[in-house]
Amino acid sequence: MLDIFLSAETLSSTIRMSVPLIFACLAGLWSERSGIVDIGLEGKMLAAAFTAAAAGAYFQSPWIALLLAIGVSILFSLVHGYASINQRGNQVVSGVAINMLAAGLAVVLGNEWFKEGGRTPPLPPEAQFPIFHMPGFDAVQSIPLVGPYINILSGHSVLVYLAFLLVPLTAWALAKTRFGLRLRAVGENPHAVDTAGISVAKLRYQAVIIAGILCGFAGTYLSVALQGSFVRDMSAGRGFMALAALIFANWRAWPSMWACLLFGYLQAVGLRMQGFKIGDVEIPVQFINMLPYVMTVVLLAGFIGKSIPPRASGIPYTKDR
Amino acid sequence: MTPAIELIHIDKRFGAVHANKDVSLSIGQGSIHGIIGENGAGKSTLMSILFGFYAADSGEIKVRGKPIKIKSSSDAIAHGIGMVHQHFMLVDPFTVLENVVLGVEGGALIGPALTKARSELKRLAEEYEMDVEPDAIVGELPVGLQQRVEILKALYKGAEVLILDEPTGVLTPDEADHLFRILGTLRDQGKTVILITHKLREIMAITDHVSVMRRGEVVANLETKNTSVGELAEAMVGRSVLLHVEKSKASPGDVVLEVKNVTWRDRKNIARVDDVSFTVRRGEIVGIAGVSGNGQSELLDCIAGITTPSTGDIIFEGKSIGHLGDPRHLRQEGLAHVPEDRQHRGLITAFDASESAILGWQFEDELGKGFRLNRDLVIANCKKEMQDFDVRPSDPLLRSGKFSGGNQQKIILAREMSSNPDLLIVGQPTRGVDIGAIEFIHKRLIALRDQGKAILLVSVELDEIRSLSDRIIVMFAGRIMGERDANATERDIGLLMAGVQKDAA
Amino acid sequence: MSQRGDLPTWVDVGLIPLLNLLLALAAASVVFLLINENPIECLGIMIKGAVGSLKGWSYLLYYATNFIFTGLCVAVAFHAGLFNIGGEGQAYFAGLGAAIVGLNLEFLPWPIVIPLSIIASVLFGAFWGLVPGYLQAKRGSHIVITTIMFNFIASSLMVYLINYWFRPIGKMAVESREVTGAYILSFREIARQFFDYKYPASPLNLTVFLAFFVAWAVWYFLWRTKLGYEIRAVGLNQDAAVYAGIKPQRIIMIAMAVSGGLAGLVAVNEVLGAQHRLLLEYVQGAGFVGIAVALMGRNHPIGIVLAAMLFGLLYQGGTELSFAKQHINRDMVVVIQGLIILFMGALENAFRPYLTALFFKADD
After folding, report:
1. Which domain holds residue A271?
2. Alpha-carbon span B194 to A233, nearest angstrom
3. CATH homologous superfamily of domain B5-237?
4. Strand B32-36, strand B209-214: pairing
5. Which DSSP letter does residue C170 get?
6. Are A191 and A318 in contact (CB under 8 A)?
7. In chain B, what residues touch A191 (CB-CB under 8 Å)?
C-alpha cells in the first residue's frame, strides 16, 4: 500500500504529471489576472501538443518542435484575445470554440499528414529534450532508504526544471515589476488603469500571449517529453484541471504550484491504483480521478476557505460605466 | 493672470443626447471653481473631456493659455490635470503605495518607485494634512481615506489642476468638512481646484467662482461671494415652463402608510436613510423633495419591499410590512410602485410592450389560469392600458425599449394604476419625459388622488413636487429636514433641500 | 447610455447570423483546402450522404434528436442568464436514471416502465443541473466553472458505476446488460413488426417525436407560462425582476433543473432508444454540440430544431465523407462545429458596426 502512495516512483511520477498542469495553470494565471477568462487552456495545450509532435517527427528536433508549438498556441491565444478584447465577445464561448477547434484540427491534420488516424509517429531519441542530471546525484542514489527519494529531483527533462523555475519567476514578475503591477491592476479595475493613461487592450493582449507561450510549453511537454507522440484528446482534461488548480490557488503563483503538485500526485496515484484493495474492498480509481474536481467545487462553494477571482475577469472593458 | 484652464466652444453628443452644447468656461489659477447643476446637466461629461476620457466633437482646450490636444488621460496627466472620479479609480486589493505609483512607475521594476512614493507621500501628508498609511490595503480603508488616496495619486503625478467629481456624495459630513479643509490648503498653495457638485451648500462653503450648468449649457458664471443659494437654485432649475395643474383641495382620510423611524444602512454601514418617519393618508399626495442621492431612492425601496429597513418599521393598512421584503405580496395587498429608474427597473427593454405591461403583476389570474400566461389576455390587457393612457404607438408587440421616454413611463403608470391600488408610490414620474406627457401624467396622478387613493411622490423636480403635492417632505442626507404644506415658497424648500434649516439661514 | 442604433429585426435575426455562418463556412473551406480537398465537392458529399437516402435522413434525425435536447438545455439556462456548459455531464448522469428504472422494473408492462424511465432520466439530469444551480444561487460559485467540474465528476462517477454496478459478472465490455422490456422502438423495428417493410438499419427511434414535442413544450413554457416569463425577466434584467417581486435565486435553481432535465432526455434517445444499454461515454459530445445549436438557433426552439437538424446533417454527412474520402477524418465535423461557435458566438458582433454604419448612412 505504501508503495502506491509513497514510493519514490510515485513521487517521481507526480513531478512529471504536474509539469503540464503547472505550465497550463500559470498560463491561466497570467490571462485571468489580466481579466481574460481562459476556458481554452485545454485546446491550446492540445494544439501545441499536436504541433510539437508533428514538427518533432518532421524536423527531428525538440527545439523546433517547441518553437512551432508555441507559435501555434499563440495564434489560438490571439483569436481568443481578438474575440475578448476587440470584439468584447463572450470569453467562455470563445474558449469553448477554441477547445473544439483544436481537438478537431489536430486529428484532421494529423490524419492527413501521417495517415495514422490522427496519431503522430513515435519520436526517436534525437527528437527528445535533453535530460538533466543534478550533479553529484548519482552518488546519492546509493544512500539507503532516503537515496531514491532525493534522487527523484534528478534526471528529468529540461522542461520539468523550466516549469518549476517559472513559478518563482511568475510570482516575482507579478509582484515586483511594472508589467506585473499593471497587469494585476487591469484584472481588478481596468478603469483605474485607463485613467492612469495605460492601454487596457495592450496589457490584455500581452497577457493572453504569455498564456499562449505557456500553453505551448505545456502541450510540448505532454506530447514530446511525456508520451513521445501525439494521440487524439491526449490532454485529457488537463487544461480544465489546471483551471481547477488555479481556482484552488486563488490565482497565485506559489499556491498554483502546490495545487498542481497535489493534482499531479492524485494522477500518479491513480495510474498505480488499478485493482487496489484495502482488505477485501477494492478502492475504485475513479474516486481518485474525480477528487480534484470535487475539491474545486467544494472550495468554490465556500465550504472550505474562499476563492476570489480577479474582480474584472470575464467582463469586457468599455469606457461607459 | 492667465487662466489655468480655458474650455472654448466644447460640444459633445452621445447619439441623440446632446451632453454639452457649445460650452465655454474659464477657470482661474489658484482658485476653487465650482460647477453646479442637476444630474444629467453635462458636468461630468465636460470634465471627462477635459481629462481625456471622452473626445469632444468640437471645441478647444487651453491650459495656462496654451492650446493643447487631450487625446487620452495620459495627455491630461502630462499637462498637470488630475481627476478624482465619482467612482474611485482605485485597485482595491492594492496598497496605497501601489495605487499611487500605477502609471508612473518610472522603470521596469517598481521597487524604486515605491520607495520614492513613500517619502513623497510623507511630504504631501505634512503639507496638506493628508495622512494615509502607505501600506494599507485600499479596499479596506474607509471611503473618506480612499478619496484621499485618489487626491494623493493626482498630486503625486504632478497635478496643478485637480478636478473632483461629486466628491462628497459618499462622505459623512465630518469627512466632507475635512475634505474642504484640504481643498482650501491646496488652493492656498497655488493649486487650482474644480469642484463638480449638485449641492449648493458646498458651493457656498468653499468655492471662489461658480458656473451653473443646465441641459448641457453653462447658464451662469458667478463669483460666489456675490451670489446666494436662492439665485443658484433658480439658475440650476431654471425658470422652466411653469407647470400648473388644476387641483382641488385635498380631503385626506385615514392613514394608509406609516413610516416609523426607518433607518437603512448600506454595505459600508452608512445610514443612507436615517430615522425617517411620516404618514400618507387616503386622498392626498405627499411629495418628497430633495436633491437626488439624499436617501429618497433607498426609502422607496424599503417601502416597496425591494429591500428591508435596518431598523424601524413600515405600517401599510394597519399591517407591519417593514420586514417582509416581498414586492409581490405588497402588490397583492394594494401597494403599487412606479420605480425611479424606468429603463433598468420599470420595464424590461428587450420585452415587448405587452410583456413589460405586466411586469410585477405576472402572477395574476386575470392573465391566465394557474401556471399559464395567456398571450391573448396579456395583449388585450396592454391594448386597454395603452388606450387608457394614450400610449403611442399603441402597438403591444413593439419592443419596450423602442418607445420614447414619455410613452415608456405611460406604460408603467398604466400598469401600476390599473391595479386600483390603495397606495401608489411614484419615483421621478416625469424624468426625461416630454412636456405633453408630463401634463398628462400629472393629471392622472391628481385624478387618482381624487378617487381617494394615497400617493407618495418622490421627485428631484421642485416644480413638480410643488404643483402636485398636498404636503411636502424635504430630505437631506438621509434625514427629513422639514415638512411644509403645498403653499411653501420655492426658496423655503430650496433651503431645506440644501440642508439649511430655516432658523440657521 | 445606449449608443448603438437599433438595426432592423431582419438584419438582427437574419442577415447577421447568415453572414456569420458564411464566415464560419469560409473558414472551414480553408481547412479543406489545407488537406488538399475541394470544399464544394466535400460539402456535396456530406449533403448527399445525409439527405440523399432514407438511411441518411434516419441518421440525421437520430443525431438531431440529441442535439435538440442539448440545444434546448443550453437555451433554457441562457434565458435565465446562465451559461450551462454542463449539458454533457447532465445527459451522461441521466443515463443512470434510465438504466436503474429500465433494468430494475422490467417486470412492469411497457406502458408503465417506459414513462417511468423517461421521468427518471429527466430527474437525474435535472439533479445534475440543480446542484450547480444551487451552488450559484446560494453559494455564489460561478456556474460555468461548476458545470465544467460536474462534467468531469460525472465522467469518473459513471465509469465507476457502470464498471462496478451495471456490468454483468464475467462480461468484458464495460457496459450494462441489455434493457429487454423498457426500450423504445426503432423505426426499423416498427417497420418490420407492423408494416413488414425493410427499413434501413439506423438508430432512429420514436424519441425523435418526443424531441419535437419537447421543443414545442419549451417554447410554451418560456413564452406562455408565468414561470417562463419570470425566467426570461431574470435573464434579461435582474433589477427589474427583483422589482417585479421575482426571486432570482429561486429562478436560477429552477432554470438549471429544467436545463439539466432537458439534457437528461438524451439518455432516452441513447440508452432506451438506440443502444438499449448503458455505455461508457455514450453522450459523445452531444452536450457541447448543444452550445453550438443554441447559439445558431438564437435560443429559440424553432431555431434550435433547425440548427439541430443542420448539425445532424453535419454529423451524418461527416461520417459519409469519411467513408468516401479515406483521408478525411470524422473530426472534420468538430472543426466546423468549433468554427460555428467561434463566428456565431464569440465573434457574433463582428459585422454589426459595419452594418450599423451602413444603415445609418442610408438613413441620413
Report:
1. 2-122+159-303
2. 61
3. P-loop containing nucleotide triphosphate hydrolases (3.40.50.300)
4. parallel
5. T
6. no
7. 87, 89
What is the CA B461 to chain-centroid distance, rounded? 12
Chain C contact for A302, CB < 8 A?
yes
- Min Cα separation C54/chain A (Å): 28
- For A95, C34, C42, C53, C68, the CA distances from C320, given in Å and listed in that order, are 29, 20, 10, 12, 22
Average pLDDT, chain C: 91
Give dist(CA B299, CA B302) in Å, integer: 5
The DSSP secondary structure of C116-161, one letter per residue, reads HHHHHHHHHHHHHHHHHHHHHHHH---HHHHHHHHHHHHHHHHHHH
Whole domain around residue C289: which residue ranges? Answer: 69-298
Q: Which of B102, B165, B343 to mutate to test the interface with A (most CBs of A within 10 A)?
A: B102
Tell me if C323 is assigned to some domain.
no
Nearest CB partner across the interface for C229, out of B305, B347, B355: B355
CA B65 to chain centre: 34
Whether A127 maps to a domain, the answer reads no
Torsion of CA C60, C61, C65, C68, to 10 degrees: 70
Q: Which of A217-221, B377-381, C187-191, C328-332 has the lowest mean pLDDT?
A: C328-332
Host H or E run for residue B223: strand B217-223
Tell whether A129 is covered by a domain: no
Q: How many domains does chain C have?
A: 1
Is the bond leading into A255 cis (omega within 30 degrees of zero)? no
pLDDT tens, residue by residue, A65-86 = 999 999 999 999 999 999 999 9
The C-alpha atoms of residue C63 and residue C68 are separated, in whole angstroms, by 9
Q: How far is A314 from chain B (nearest CA, A)?
A: 17
Q: What is the pTM of this model?
A: 0.88
CATH 3.40.50.300 boundaries in chain B = 5-237, 245-334+421-505
Q: In what order do the strands lie in the sheet with B335-338?
A: B335-338, B423-427, B454-458, B285-289, B471-476, B479-485
Identify which has the larger pLDDT, A287 or C363. Answer: A287
Q: How far apart are CA A88 and CA B67, in angstroms?
A: 35
In a domain, C354, yes or no: no
Three cell numbers at A96? 469553448
Q: How far is CA B239 from the centre of its chain?
A: 21
Return d(Cα B393, Cα B400) in angstroms, integer.
11
User: What is the arithmetic mean of pLDDT over B336-361?
Assistant: 93
- Measured CA to CA in angstroms, residue C14 lies from A150, B310, C296 at distances of 65, 51, 11
The string of pLDDT tens digits covering residues A86-136 is 999 989 999 999 999 999 999 999 988 888 878 899 998 888 898 888 887
| CATH number of the domain residue A184 falls in | 1.10.3470.10
Nearest neighbour of C335 by CB, restricted to A79, A101, A300: A101
Phi, psi dihedral angles at B481 (to 5 degrees): -85, -25
Interatomic CA distance for residues B156 and B219, integer angstroms = 34
Nearest by CB: A176 against B74, B91, B109: B109
Lowest mean pLDDT of A220-229, B357-366, C176-185, name the range: C176-185
Domain B245-334+421-505 belongs to what topology? Answer: Rossmann fold (3.40.50)
Residue C364 lies in a domain: no
Q: What is the mean pLDDT of residues B415-430?
A: 92
Q: Over range C118-137, report the average pLDDT.
A: 96
C118 part of a folded domain: yes
Query: What would the pLDDT profile of A165-205 be if each residue is shown by its tens digit?
Result: 999 999 999 999 999 999 999 999 999 999 998 999 999 99
Highest mean pLDDT among A263-277, B287-301, C86-100: C86-100
Q: Beta-carbon neighbour count of residue B131 at 10 Å?
A: 12
Q: Are B353 and B403 in contact (CB under 8 A)?
A: yes
Structural domain total, chain A: 1
Average pLDDT, chain B: 89
DSSP label at residue C345: I
